[in-house]
Design a protein that fits this description.
This protein is an alpha/beta fold. It has a single domain (3-244), classed as Alpha-Beta Barrel (TIM Barrel), CATH 3.20.20. It contains seven helices and nine strands, in the order E-H-E-H-E-H-H-E-H-E-E-E-H-E-H-E. Strands 1, 2, 3, 4, 5, 6, 7, 8 and 9 form a nine-stranded mixed sheet that branches.
Length: 248
């Protein structure tokens, strides 16, 4: 870990798509006092197959404006919806209990994952006018085929719940859990509040915080997000994921 990567705060907004445009705006306002525009957006090209990003649309124009202001742009799957069937019991359990049918890249073959990465990347890069900065699988779930396809893609950065790594080299760039919130059930909401309270002062070189559009619909989560960023920003430098890459 380089000195530049120590005491780093990395923020991300997930599920950026036309479906959640107003929520994304609210999350940007929530994070701005703490990180400014030093954050990543995880962009879904066609959320659940019925919310496409259309070049030339008002949302596409907004997305390009965010990119030009310095926001990092990560490809976040293609549909964000998992339509795969699973032979292994462990994968069935992960797909069922770790996400509400949204682990799109968990069950894909190398070929299918490659197509979705290539198609999603082409769309997002056409809209923002520059290469994507990285890739994050929906629900942070990767199957073997997805990992192989990602290694083939040349995309410089990837993230799961526990790590950030370089797909071209395989080098691990940061370790430690992402602080994130869940609101699907009362139990998940309560456990995510407890986890955020425990992790926001964790002695990690890199602290990652990820927020989702539904978070801003729950005042208790908004308060937890604000407190987490306030505490983290006192001790850490808001940075970008690209800060983790070796200097050229």
């Amino acid at each position: 870990m380089s000195t530049a990567s120590q005491n780093l705060l990395l923020a991300s907004i997930h599920d950026v798509s036309p479906r959640f445009e107003s929520e994304v705006e609210r999350l940007l306002d929530l994070l701005a006092p703490h990180v400014g525009e030093r954050l990543a957006m995880l962009v879904v090209p066609n959320h659940w197959g019925d919310s496409p990003i259309t070049p030339g649309s008002s949302f596409a124009t907004r997305l390009r404006s965010w990119a030009e202001s310095g926001v990092e742009m990560f490809l976040h799957g293609y549909f964000h919806r998992d339509l795969s069937s699973y032979e292994r019991a462990t994968d069935r359990i992960r797909a069922r209990f770790m996400t509400a049918g949204e682990g799109e890249f968990l069950g894909l073959s190398r070929e299918d994952a490659s197509v979705r990465i290539a198609d999603g990347r082409a769309l997002v890069e056409d809209v923002i006018g520059r290469p994507v900065d990285g890739f994050v699988a929906p629900a942070w779930l990767y199957g073997e085929g997805a990992l192989e396809a990602l290694g083939d893609s040349g995309i410089p950065l990837a993230e799961d719940h526990w790590h950030v790594w370089s797909p071209p080299s395989g080098a691990r760039l940061a370790s430690g859990p992402v602080i994130t919130w869940a609101s699907r059930t009362r139990a998940r909401l309560a456990s995510s509040l407890l986890a955020a309270a425990a992790l926001r002062r964790a002695p990690l070189d890199v602290l990652r915080i990820g927020v989702h559009p539904p978070d801003c619909r729950h005042p208790v989560l908004v308060r937890s997000i604000e407190k987490t960023f306030t505490i983290a920003a006192r001790r850490r430098r808001a940075g970008r994921y690209s800060d983790l890459l070796p200097a050229a």
